[in-house]
């Protein structure tokens, strides 16, 4: 039995995923990591660097109809894995997880992508008041209360 609390790490593929894995690399000593990412390249029995990796439906602002299957998959993962917390670097799949996590009273952490230099991301703005911890990687975007700056991932 693993005494470490579980942390669900979820993001969109690409740059969001790269940032998420860099953040989580520093958390491996304290948490049992479980990953979720939209992909057709692996199945539900996949692993990422020795950690469980779930495939979920990708969703974006351009294909909102995919919110339902994505939400159902994320809900199933949350109920199956029972994580102590959820962390995401975005985009829409992470926002779905943060919203569902809040409903299930799971602690949530949003790390807005470093690519969002001028303003908080669209997904970040949607869940900004739902996330227990909301971090930006740009000091000028921090308000010091709801949106915090603790440094950049990259």
Features:
4 helices; eight-stranded mixed beta sheet; 154 residues; 8 strands; single chain; 29% helix; Rossmann fold; 26% strand; globular; N-acetylglucosaminyldiphosphodolichol N-acetylglucosaminyltransferase activity; alpha/beta
Q: Helical region count?
A: 4
Q: Tell me, what is the CATH class?
A: Alpha Beta
* H and E order: EHEEEHEHEHEE
Average of pLDDT: 92
| Helix/sheet category | alpha/beta
Helix content: 25-40%
What's the helix and strand layout?
Layout: E1 6-11, H1 15-25, E2 32-38, E3 46-48, E4 51-56, H2 67-81, E5 85-90, H3 92-103, E6 107-111, H4 122-127, E7 133-136, E8 147-149
Helix pairs in contact: 2-3
Structure description:
This protein is of the alpha/beta class and 154 residues long. It has a single domain (6-149), classed as Glycogen Phosphorylase B (Rossmann fold, 3-Layer(aba) Sandwich). It contains four helices and eight strands; from the N terminus they run E-H-E-E-E-H-E-H-E-H-E-E. The protein has helices at 15-25, 67-81, 92-103, 122-127; strands at residues 6-11, 32-38, 46-48, 51-56, 85-90, 107-111, 133-136, 147-149. Strands 3-4-2-1-5-6-7-8 form an eight-stranded mixed beta sheet. Helix 2 packs across helix 3. The termini are far apart. The mean pLDDT is 92.
